[in-house]
Automatic annotation (TrEMBL):
The keyword rRNA-binding does not apply. This is DNA ligase (ATP). It catalyses: ATP + (deoxyribonucleotide)n-3'-hydroxyl + 5'-phospho-(deoxyribonucleotide)m = (deoxyribonucleotide)n+m + AMP + diphosphate. InterPro entries: ATP-dep_DNA_ligase, ATP_dep_DNA_lig_pp_1105_fam, DNA_ligase_ATP-dep_C, DNA_ligase_ATP-dep_cent, DNA_ligase_ATP-dep_CS, DNA_ligase_ATP-dep_N, DNA_ligase_N_sf, NA-bd_OB-fold. Keywords: ATP-binding, Cell cycle, Cell division, DNA damage, DNA recombination, DNA repair, DNA replication, Ligase, Magnesium, Metal-binding, Nucleotide-binding. Transmembrane segments: none annotated. It is an enzyme of class 6 (ligase). GO terms for molecular function: ATP binding; DNA binding; DNA ligase (ATP) activity; metal ion binding. GO terms for biological process: cell division; DNA recombination; DNA repair; DNA replication. It comes from Natronocella acetinitrilica. PROSITE patterns: DNA_LIGASE_A1 (PS00697), DNA_LIGASE_A3 (PS50160).
């Protein structure tokens, strides 16, 4: 555990990506494969289900330290990270630990995982006993694992670079081996770094290729005829796999969505064995997409009812072919892949359709099509170089997203709470409202869009203008106005305002406006008329 804690600390103390990669590579080079497998698991964003309620951890800390509840909450508000708060508070009550350094895999498999089968009293005895035997750095990491909130400042891409450095493999190979279902075992770690490929799990998807935002005139890309254009659909990016008589549907976030879209799974049975399609899952009716909030009714249901299937029908709109007859065809050109994709989709069932390219002989014609995006329920266009292979990650140059300008509104800040990670000591997560008569009604939450100086300035203002506190959340004087941008808007029964916005972020701090100048709910609802299918 102590070597893992040291790695965590090294990663947390630097912003230099090369230093992060070097620290991870050094660790993987010498670590026990049983420990290294778990480190890969945690650093790539996978996590244990929360095994100990945070309320229990708070109670144990209060009993352990004898401090009042209000002091713990004040300390938590100042530190901003519960795991770190508990580690520091408990540290004040302990003598130097004996320091038996149990390996990480033993901690996870023999100690942490069995907590789910214990009574609260047994969990308390076990966890407080562990606190007493660990130094503060290891105790902090333990608390992170217990709360299920393990985060550290590395991306999957950096982990892949470190593993590639150790193994000598190409980063694309390592990325592919980390996709899909796998268990953090010594055998997995060995296979991950093995120069030889000893076969793959039939359910394993490919790494997704991601488009980059186009911020210049598309004419800079060259001749229009060298590019394929299609609508940028607002759904769930997914891969549809049909291998060895089984269907697997993977989201871009690497969630295996078994049973959630039975109409797509049924359609996949008509595909040839060894087929993998890339595309978008959309709520769809009568040849047109439905708003994203309709699709949300399907996302969380493992076995949708007949009523849900009827009210929220879905479709897999395929736009690329990654595997054909069991062969990886990603290195072929887009034109080659699309020529073979169309007949495959034609023979598939009703749950799969082809994302048709847009006919255009000039960039001006495509710009005119783009202007119709919102009325058709799309976010703009995707431009793909016809001679390009299917790459890994966000490699710039071959795929571009040419989106329409976002919706914008002016809203008043109502609430704020601490962020996560390096922002855990700053109030960076905000709730905004608009006027409904004489009242301000919350319409959006956002935590991105301000620069560091603005964040620090706003943090100071929030602390001096707090009206009430609800745990980590503060209500503030309704004075600060911000322009918010968002991609979509839809009716919502789950929100007090009756609407839900998609991907909200802060565009700018409107120092020139007072709260009375913010938009009204009626003005926001008028945007619904600009979205296809919203009525």
């Amino acid at each position: 555990m102590q070597s893992f804690a040291a790695l965590y600390q090294a990663l947390d103390e630097t912003n230099a990506t090369n230093d992060k990669v070097a620290a991870m590579a050094d660790y993987f080079q010498t670590a026990d494969p049983a420990d290294a497998a778990w480190v890969v698991y945690f650093l790539t964003g996978r996590r244990l289900k929360r095994l100990v309620p945070t309320a229990e951890l708070r109670q144990w800390t209060l009993a352990f330290t004898g401090m009042p509840d209000w002091l713990l909450e004040e300390t938590y508000a100042s530190v901003g990270d519960l795991a770190e708060t508990l580690a520091l508070l408990v540290d004040n009550e302990l003598d130097a630990p004996a320091g038996n350094d149990l390996p990480l895999h033993r901690w996870v498999e023999d100690r942490i995982r069995p907590l789910r089968h214990m009574t609260p009293e047994e969990r308390c005895s076990a966890v407080t006993g562990w606190w007493a035997e660990l130094p503060v750095a290891s105790r902090f990491v333990l608390n992170k694992l217990l709360t299920g909130a393990f985060r550290v400042g590395v991306s999957r891409r950096l982990v892949v670079r470190a593993l590639a450095r150790v193994s000598g493999l190409d980063t694309a190979v390592v990325t592919h081996r980390l996709m899909g279902r796998w268990e953090p075992t010594p055998a997995f770690f060995g296979a991950l770094l093995d120069p030889e490929d000893h076969g793959e799990d039939a359910s394993r998807p490919y790494p997704f290729y991601l488009a980059s935002p186009l911020e210049s005139n598309p004419g800079t890309l060259g001749l229009c005829r060298d590019w394929l254009a299609e609508w940028k659909w607002d759904g769930i990016r997914a891969q549809l796999l049909w291998r060895a008589g089984d269907c697997y549907i993977w989201s871009r976030g690497e969630e295996l969505m078994e049973g959630r879209f039975p109409e797509i799974e049924e359609a996949a049975t008509t595909l040839p064995d060894g087929t993998v399609l890339d595309g978008e899952i959309l709520a769809w009716r009568d040849g047109s997409p439905l708003p994203f909030n309709v699709l949300q009714h399907r996302i969380g249901r493992l076995k949708p009812s007949a009523r849900v299937l009827r009210e929220a029908p879905v479709l897999f709109l395929a736009y690329d072919l990654l595997e054909l007859d069991g062969d990886d065809v990603r290195s072929q050109t887009l034109d080659w892949r699309r020529a073979r994709l169309a007949p495959l989709v034609d023979q598939a069932g009703d749950g799969v359709a082809l994302s048709e390219p847009l006919p255009a002989d000039s960039w001006d014609a495509l710009a005119a099509s783009r202007e119709r995006s919102r009325e058709l329920g799309t976010e703009g266009l995707i431009l793909k170089r016809r001679q390009a292979p299917y790459q890994v990650g966000r490699v710039r140059g071959d795929w571009w997203k040419w989106k329409v300008e976002p919706h914008t509104i002016d809203a008043v800040m109502l609430y704020a709470q601490p962020g996560h990670g390096r922002r855990s000591n700053l109030l960076t997560d905000y709730t905004f409202g608009v006027w409904d008569g004489a009242d301000l009604v919350p319409v959006a939450k956002a935590y991105s869009g301000l620069d560091n100086k603005e964040i620090e300035r706003l943090d100071r203002w929030i602390r001096s203008h707090t009206v009430e506190r609800f745990g980590p959340v503060r209500s503030v004087h309704p004075e600060q106005v911000f322009e918010l941008a968002f991609e979509g808007i839809a009716e919502s029964r789950r929100h007090k305002s009756g609407i839900a916005v998609r991907f909200p972020r802060i565009s700018r701090w409107r120092h020139d406006l007072g709260p009375q100048d913010a938009d009204t709910l009626e003005q926001v609802r008028a945007l619904l008329g600009q979205v296809a299918g919203s009525g």
